[in-house]
Amino acid sequence: MTTAALPFPANQPKGYEWFDAEAEFDERVHLQLEAPEHIRTLKEFGYSDEVIATKASPVAVSSPFRILSEEGAAVLLSVARRLRQHATSCERIDNLVRGGCYRSRFLRDLCTNASLTQLMCDIYQTDVAPHTMPLQLGHMNFSPNDLSKAVDKWHYDTLPLDIVMMVTDPNKIAGGRFEYFVGTKEEMAELAKQGKTPPVSRVVAPEFNGAGYAIALHGNMVVHRGGPLEKAAERISMVNGYVSTLPNVDDQQRHSQLRAVDDPEVLYTEWAKHAAWRGRERLNSLLQEMDFTSDRKQIASQLKEAIEDVNLAIAEISDDNVASIDHFEK
Ligand SMILES: [Fe+2]
Prior knowledge:
Elements: H1 27-30, E1 39-41, H2 49-53, E2 59-62, E3 65-66, H3 70-83, E4 95-97, H4 105-111, H5 114-124, E5 128-130, E6 139-142, E7 150-155, E8 161-166, E9 178-181, H6 185-193, E10 203-204, E11 213-217, E12 224-228, E13 237-244, H7 264-289, H8 296-306, H9 308-318
Antiparallel strand pairs: 1-2, 3-11, 4-6, 5-13, 6-13, 7-12, 8-11, 8-13, 9-10, 9-12
């Protein structure tokens, strides 16, 4: 069952205006949801049962599946082209747009659509909701200015779960393939220490049938990238984030890294609201589950755990040092 974690904010942040003359999102016209044929688990990637048990989902990645109809894909492409004027750059990605859901109602309504979210619950085999932070919805990657650069370097995500959708047809482009490493983050860190990228034998580049197809990804656990283009071309992909609605799994967020890329007018408020939501859900769970006991250490530790995301957010938001955005390439 899908549950909204937090409602989309009623007000826009400073500097964001809605696009005019935009098609209104209609799931009967714009969606063509199909289930993926294959699911790969974190276990297959080398993670232990103990680690998997604490994460949002046991799923690592799905095979490509259809999300948008032809008409839906055409509208999303036109939205992405309009958003491109707001592109920024960071150490990991040459051209990206964040906060598009505060500008395009079509993108907002697609990214928060209940039918799509229900499909994601089925794929992830757990209850998920569109990410609590709209900056983590409808993220767009565009072709790099420098063709020698990967569209998005080898990394794992700053959020637990996401879909990676092709906005342009990857079959009409040379290179720029989405790729993932069949292995753990720890293995990748070891490789990177030796100056290596993942061995070709353990890299998978899924075949997408066209624009509007996507894969489901446990982005925080699966190392992946958008490969370099072989020839200059328009290459756009869209990443939409999800969170587990279960209060006691790991948060799997690395919000502090977003300081290197996101608009401070938006980021800190969204970050604080996410932490408040996590704290609320965990305190609620504690209220329901706490038993009588004289074990005061256990009681104190349960309370401490329930608000650990709030305390972490306070510490990280107060920190004056801006983190860089991590990746595994030099
Ligand atoms: Fe990613």
